[in-house]
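Hey,
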Amino acid sequence: MKSEKPKLVVVMPAFNAAKTLKMTYYDLPSDIVDLVMLVDDGSSDETLEVARQLNLEIFIHRRNFGYGANQKTCYIEALRAGAEIIVMVHPDYQYDPTLLPRIIEPIEQERADVVLGSRLLGLSPIAQGMPWWKYYGNRVLTKIENMVFGLQLSEYHTGYRAYHRRVLENINFYSNSDNFIFDQEIIAQAVDAQVKIVEVSVPTRYFPEASSASLAASVRYGLEVLWLMFRYRLHKSGTIRQKQFESLRLRYRKLEKTPGDSHST
């Protein structure tokens, strides 16, 4: 697959995605994608066999380290491959891969550094199959996050995302959780770095093979989001500054201004 610059790399954080991986891959617009990477997080099904049949670039975690740990490997390897735009596409076929041009357009037009594919901008997610408790939980958490971040987004909890490489190079995503809260930690870091975040509407599918968190897992995730918002408020107020949220560029500037300090590269 070949495209004009900027180099576009699709990353797929995979865990037991054998039944849906082919559908997801074949729906990607191959004319604009330069490289597809899959990071397998200790799958116990045939995910790796399918990925090899599709000739994807594969990275393997020998055991299940977690969704956040999977994304860390995705972004590290995509940056190493020279990606200028990195799009995360879940291989469970819940998010429509054919919408990828819509996802990257704001970055290509230099209107955004981060693009989130929102399930709440278009048709009713409940009508599309989203459980009601997940929908209302999403709305409540998003309202709280908007207040903390000072933004007006419709959703923060989407798994369909695009990043310009400069964002990932300048935030400390390596320090984030290995679990699902990683998605919100990286948004907090992007907000603190004052990058431009744009949303586009993306419908989603809900079916048995698509991954979906249980009610208990969703409650735990919601509590983690609230704790993250509390920590971020402490950081922004200056009460307790946290290196996790500071951009790497800002930290380098601080080092350069430290009298008598020296370091080698």
